[in-house]
Design goal:
The complex is a heterotrimer. Chain A is mainly alpha-helical. Chain A is about 65% helix and about 0% strand. In chain A, helix 2 runs antiparallel to helix 3. In chain A, about 50% of the residues are buried. The N terminus of chain A is likely disordered. By secondary structure, chain B is an alpha/beta fold. Helices cover about 30% and strands about 20% of the residues of chain B. In chain B, strand 9 and strand 10 form a beta hairpin. By secondary structure, chain C is an all-alpha fold. Chain C contains 13 helices and no strands. In chain C, helix 5 runs antiparallel to helix 6 and helix 10 runs parallel beside helix 11. The C terminus of chain C is likely disordered. Classes of the chains: A mainly alpha, B alpha/beta, C mainly alpha. At the A-C interface, helix 3, helix 4, helix 7, helix 8 and helix 9 of A face helix 1, helix 6, helix 7, helix 10 and helix 11 of C.
Chain lengths: ~290, ~700, ~325
């Protein structure tokens, strides 16, 4: 006798209509940015560093869609070319913090004991610094460079990633399907990578999308105070910083990279929200 | 088997209602239809539900999960939430349709005229406020008492619900109280404004049996002394039998039967009610009895009722049942049934699938070496030897000096309440937790030691079936993938061969082989539990620990799984350690039983011996607390235990603090001696065996079984 | 509770020591000779060596650290190389100004953020909820410095309502002092509002679905009591923790904000020190800001324990 009468097999394919709306909007917003990051210098109407004294501080018009800056450089072209640098800050720093943080968190959660304790105390020390000050400290005593800013931001976010990974690991360790894996004699590696990791990465993906946003903003801030990307780069943070003295007479110089930043941040946020909805295990299989 | 005379409910109304004209009902539900809507569609939770509760009457609203019983209760309180909506119908309270009242007036009735007690006392109390303040709130809100006046009344109320130190308890936070005390505090809150109607939504389901017995006793007394009407929502027929005068049975959101409790439970008219009563595990010394079960699962309704809701699972169903909705047929006495065949089926029992055909009786466990030997097992949690003195902790003793064996092909039941250490014993046997002291030998080898050295082969011979069928399956793996791994690890042939084995295992536990492609969330609870069993069998084990394996399931499904486990044991010669809080379930499957309390074994022996005197005082209280149907025998006086619980691990008897037969200081200071009899019945108690044997049996009807053995 | 306090205090002391070692090591042991950096790239070797001796850079690191740490314990934060003054008084003055900015911003974020979060949770899925979420998105969509520029443009340059920068001591009147705070505070608040509002909203939604809220409703409590007394107190627990983290973000954020608004606080001092390679000033500033952050975290933990009876009373028993 089975107690199965009510459940009919359902199609297992993902349908477009099943995708969360925020995910679609997020992708639509981000797609042009990704294109710009990859192919910005080919698409730009002018070279990003071409100066033209004759057309300094031009307002937006048919020649220069978003105007020109104090050296007569085309703001639109610069913003387009700067996409790569600005997104790289966020993505690379987040990747760094995940690469360092996820294994540490997994070990701290799975092994526990002295090893786990040592990892967590080290993270406590890192977390005791106000988020960016440790980075500023490193950047302050050596000549600034973008890769250093990326490393600094990456390190700042390691403790958060470790904590989250460990918390989820600990929670999962209590789950009965992990107990079942122990019972059938699985190795620690299998349990970590095949049972725990697949359940960790959905919340991590959501977390990562948030981290990318913070990292992009932080990177822009560092570039803004002169500790990130260096001139003549057209990193958005740096562009806004350079536009500041002219903001009253030529606000468009700051506006264009500002809007680009806003689109990136909103797009990634929506992507994160969409991922959260999509990766819910209840949405797997039949819909 | 259903020939018991009609029993009297425990609570009799003061006046005989059959003679005097029936008074106007206090609560009259008419044609209530409720649905839940979300993005994926609507779900009909209750369809045309009607019933009435007279003043001073306690009505049971029973059904399994998904029957809509809680939904109806919440609709009365206007607390549906979560997209729930009353589509039509009337809720007449004292002649006024609550649905027509403005929200503010309905709110003013809540907690004042209509009070409620919910299932889980711990989550029903706000962790951030003192208990006293939470009890005082409705008094201040509805009765206009000042906080000072309310505080006085709170202490009176707490005293009335049997709390000894009302002042201290009122000043406590919820987490400082035991589950029983918390539930008493909730009851005190509900009584505060002298309501006319109590809505009790599974008020004892989260509690231990001995605590439940006391709470039910208290509720019965209070309803009687305050002339309260109550709607008692429950899945537990035994408790409904104990406290309710009338009962309404819901199935799939439809009332299928209503009437006097004694009549409905002893002579159910609707096939579903018949099945429900038949599938209920009862305490029995006849271990080989196969439980009748209801096949299938509850179908979810999305629209109007077009046929008998129970027809897909009904063994008596005909074409008419599947094509027409059934009307409710009421008689003058107020009994009603929603089945056109009810008269024809009167007196016909629920079919026993292989009635009479006794299962192949395997030879009794051989006297060869036992499969599992547990010797002086002890487990302490949370001990901390920190350098910082204020962080040092002695830890909590979960299991204290436990020794027993499990023979080959034997089923050993472990019965205990929460905190008894029964789950820890199970985990230690599977080397999932390292014992603090003592040894666990599996087939002569130290399992913990072997596992620590990395030997997984021995471990695969001992498996576990979990309580929570959902949590024990990885949500991201198909059923097939989950079952494939044990086979891969055991080096079990190629993918095709493993696929065949998986199909075979699924068929063996009664599931279609095609289920291998499904994800866990696509299965019902009972189906998932079958998958869990199939997975445990994949490593071809000798020994399976069933940790509350059927506790989370509805009665009808529970019977199914219990039968399956018994079959597998007979066919494959498995040994089980069957851990449960439900002694009735154990009596259906176990050869021997251990009764555990506070981490120690207080009684052990063959099931038939444990159910008969002499009893350990705890076993006696536990057995007397089990709620039963009237037809199963005379109600015995229940032995009510104090709520207090001493931390286990002390020097004396673990049960001493709550023992109603405590001798004196000796119980606190010395470990009790073990009295053993010839048939392997052992009792650990300071009271001499002869004195223990003088007590009357809790189950006089079982004494007759001796003749059959 | 007392034991808990002791444990937290002990770990705070430990963390401060580790922190000072880290700060010292990073500043002293970084690649690149500090002495030549201070002297400038055209200085002769003798000048560089003289500076090294003057700073004690020729001695082993452990000795250097010992001297530095001992000085700090006696309240001596060293002398600024560029300003040629004791660091202590300058730093404390700047810290006080920055703390005013940070605390006012934190209070505004807490009050407005929690209120918006509660509002969104109670009106879940309705227009109010979507508006709150829209405002939140707007706040985090662009970096704080961009908001600062926009605010300066609108309120300073076009409307001429508020001063666009600088600082007036409170001794010269409350209004001018407060006016100088408005734009920096609004900028900081915009940066952090979204997180607090969203967090409060989600924990409030969780709490509103608990049994005890349902039971409070079953007792006939008015919705305002249910939300404010029963739900909010429990929903605030995660918010308190995040507010402490946010205090750190504010302390970091002031570096940028103070630069834009020419606000003479800690952040501007730090940036000044960095630009001039004033090593003792960099060390002291970062150490003091970090210590302030640790104290904020400790306060949050104690507040958490105080609000949460499970910790408050659980500790009493042991």
């Amino acid at each position: 006798m089975t107690d199965a009468t009510s459940i009919r097999p359902a199609p297992r394919r993902l349908r477009m209509s099943a995708l969360p709306g925020s995910l679609i909007v997020g992708i639509v917003l981000l797609a042009p940015l990704v294109v710009a990051a990859v192919a910005g210098s080919w698409l730009a109407p002018y070279p990003y560093d071409e100066m033209n004294i004759l057309s300094r501080l031009q307002p937006p018009g048919p020649d220069f869609w978003f105007g020109t800056d104090e050296f007569g450089r085309d703001v639109f072209s610069r913003t387009l070319v700067g996409t790569g640098s600005s997104l790289l800050m966020g993505v690379a720093a987040t990747a760094l913090s995940l690469l360092a943080g996820v294994p540490l968190g997994l070990v701290a959660g799975y092994k526990g004991g002295r090893v786990g304790e040592a990892i967590m105390r080290a993270m406590d020390v890192l977390m005791s610094f106000p988020p960016i000050l440790l980075g500023i400290l490193v950047l302050a005593v050596t000549p600034p460079a973008q890769w250093k800013a990326i490393a600094a931001i990456g390190i700042v976010y390691v403790p958060q990633v470790v904590r989250l990974t460990r918390a989820i690991t600990l929670e999962l360790m209590q789950e009965e399907f992990i107990t079942a894996a122990h019972l059938r004699g699985e190795s620690a590696t299998y349990i970590l990578f095949k049972e725990i990791l697949p359940n960790i990465w959905p919340p991590l993906a959501v977390e990562a999308s948030l981290r990318v946003v913070f990292a992009i903003l932080l990177g822009a801030s560092l570039s803004f105070i002169g500790m990130g990307a260096q001139p003549p780069s057209s990193d958005w943070g740096l562009m806004i910083s350079e536009a500041r003295p002219f903001v009253e007479q030529a606000p468009w110089i700051a506006l264009c990279p500002g809007f680009a930043l806003a689109i990136a941040v909103i797009g990634i946020n929506l992507l994160g929200d969409g991922l959260r909805a999509l990766l819910d295990p209840r949405n797997m299989g039949a819909h | 088997m259903m020939t018991a005379p009609q029993a009297q409910p425990v609570l009799q109304p003061a006046a005989a209602p059959a003679v005097t004209p029936a008074p106007a009902p206090l609560l009259d539900i008419r044609g209530l239809t409720i649905s839940y809507g979300n993005a994926r569609g609507t779900l009909r939770a209750a369809s045309d539900v009607s019933f009435a509760i007279r003043p001073g009457e306690v009505m049971g609203l029973v059904g399994e999960s998904g029957s809509g019983k809680s939904t109806v209760a919440m609709a009365i309180l206007d607390l549906l939430g979560g997209g729930g909506r009353v589509d039509s119908g009337e809720i007449l309270f004292d002649g006024v349709d609550l649905r027509r009242l403005p929200a503010a007036e309905r709110r003013a009735l809540r907690g004042d005229r209509i009070a409620a007690v919910f299932q889980d006392p711990f989550t029903s109390l706000n962790p951030a406020l003192t208990v006293g303040r939470q009890i005082a709130e409705p008094l201040i809100q509805h009765k206009g008492l000042s906080p000072r006046q309310a505080a006085v009344r709170v202490e009176e109320l707490l005293a009335e619900v049997g709390i000894r130190e009302p002042r201290r308890v009122a000043a406590s936070y919820p987490h400082e109280l035991s589950g029983g005390m918390q539930q008493r505090a909730l009851i005190a809150t509900a009584l505060g404004c002298e309501p006319k109607l109590l809505i009790l939504d599974e008020p004892t389901t989260a509690l231990d049996v001995t605590v439940e017995a006391r709470i039910i006793d208290l509720l019965a007394k209070l309803c009687d002394s305050h002339r309260l009407s109550a709607l008692f929502v429950s899945h537990n027929l035994g408790i409904v039998n104990r406290i309710c005068e009338t009962v309404t049975v819901l199935y799939g959101g439809v009332v299928v039967e209503t009437g006097r409790t004694g009549r409905v439970l002893s002579r159910p008219a609707h096939p579903y009610a018949k099945g429900l009563v038949a599938a209920l595990p009862r305490i029995t010394a006849e271990r080989r009895h196969r439980l009748p079960s209801i096949p299938g699962t509850v179908a979810k309704l999305s629209g109007a009722v077009t046929a008998c809701v129970f027809a897909p699972r009904c063994p008596f169903a005909e074409e008419t049942c599947r094509s027409q909705p059934q009307p409710m047929r009421m008689d003058e006495a107020g009994d009603g049934v929603r089945c056109w065949k009810a008269d024809a089926l009167a007196g016909m029992p629920w079919p026993d699938e292989d009635a009479g055909a006794a299962r192949p009786s395997r030879p009794q466990p051989q006297q060869s070496a036992p499969l599992v030997e547990v010797d002086h097992l002890r487990k302490v949690y949370g001990a901390n030897r920190s350098v910082l003195p204020w962080l040092r902790r002695a830890g909590t003793v979960a299991v204290d000096d436990v020794s027993f064996t499990v023979g080959r092909g034997e089923v050993v039941g472990v019965v205990g309440e929460s905190g008894s250490g029964k789950s820890t014993i199970g985990r230690a046997l599977l080397a999932l937790t390292e014992p603090s002291a003592g040894t666990v030998l599996f087939d002569g080898a130290d399992l913990t030691e072997r596992v620590r050295r990395g030997d997984q082969d021995l471990r695969r011979r001992a498996q576990l079936v979990f309580q929570n069928s959902a949590a024990s399956l990885n949500p991201r793996k198909t059923i097939g993938a989950a079952m494939d791994r044990p086979l891969v690890l055991a080096g079990h042939g190629d993918a095709e061969e493993r696929g065949k084995t998986i199909a075979g295992l699924l068929t063996r536990v009664g599931l279609p082989a095609a289920y291998a492609d499904r994800y866990p969330h696509e299965l019902s609870g009972g189906e998932r539990q079958r998958v869990n069993i199939a997975r445990a069998l994949a490593t071809n084990p000798d020994f399976v620990v069933c940790d509350e394996a059927v506790s989370a399931l509805d009665v009808s499904v529970q019977a199914n799984i219990l039968n399956l486990l018994a079959e597998l044991r007979d066919e494959m010669g498995l040994s089980y350690l069957f851990i449960t809080h439900d002694i009735a379930v154990v009596s259906h499957i176990a050869d021997r039983v251990l009764v555990v309390y506070g981490g120690t074994i207080c009684e052990e022996g063959p099931i038939a011996s444990v159910l008969r005197p002499p009893y350990h005082p705890y076993t006696e209280a536990l057995l007397s607390a089990v709620p039963r149907l009237a037809e199963d025998g005379q109600e015995v006086p229940r032995i009510l235990l104090e709520d207090a619980a001493a931390a286990p691990g002390g020097r004396g008897c673990a049960f001493a603090a709550r023992c109603p037969r405590k001798l004196g200081a000796v119980c606190d200071e010395q470990a009790p001696p073990v009295h053993a009899t010839a048939d392997g019945h052992r009792i650990a108690c300071h009271i001499p065996l002869a004195t223990l044997a003088e007590r009357a049996s809790v189950f006089p009807e079982l004494m007759g079984d001796d003749a059959r053995h | 509770m007392f034991a808990y306090f002791l444990t937290r205090l002990a770990s705070l002391a430990l963390i401060l020591v580790v922190m000072s070692v880290l700060i010292f090591l990073v500043t002293q042991a970084m690649p690149g000779d500090v002495a030549s950096m201070i002297a400038g790239q055209f200085a002769s070797k003798e000048v560089v060596d003289a500076i090294a001796v003057k700073l004690g850079l020729d001695q082993p690191l452990i000795v250097q650290y010992g001297r530095w740490a001992a000085g700090i314990l006696q309240g001596d934060l060293g002398r600024s190389l560029v300003l040629e003054q004791p660091i202590g008084p300058i730093l404390m003055e700047a810290l006080a100004r920055s703390l005013v900015l940070a605390v006012v911003a934190l209070v505004v974020v807490a009050v407005v953020g929690i209120a918006l979060g509660v509002l969104a949770a109670v009106r879940r899925g309705k227009l109010t909820d979507q508006m709150v979420s829209g405002i939140s998105y707007l706040g985090i969509a662009v970096p704080d410095f961009f908001w600062a520029i926009v605010l300066v443009l609108i309120f300073g340059s076009y409307l001429k309502l508020l001063p666009t920068g600088g600082y007036t001591p409170i001794s010269e009147g409350f209004l001018p002092w407060a006016a100088h705070l408005v734009l920096p505070v609004v900028t900081l608040v915009l940066m952090l509002l979204a997180r607090i509002a969203r967090l409060t909203r989600s924990s409030m939604i969780d709490v509103l679905q608990t049994n005890y809220v349902k039971f409070a409703r079953a007792k006939g409590m008015p919705e305002s009591v249910v939300i404010l007394r029963h739900a909010l107190k429990n929903a605030l627990l995660p918010t308190i923790t995040v507010l402490a983290i946010d205090f750190g973000l504010i302390l970091g954020g002031v570096v940028v904000i103070e630069t834009i608004f020419s606000y003479p606080g800690m952040g501007r001092l730090l940036l000044f020190a960095i630009q001039r390679h004033d090593l003792p000033l960099i060390q002291a500033t970062i150490l003091i800001v970090s210590a302030a952050y640790c104290l904020a975290n400790l306060t949050a933990d104690l507040l958490y324990a105080f609000v949460n009876p499970k910790i408050r009373h659980g500790m009493r028993a042991s």
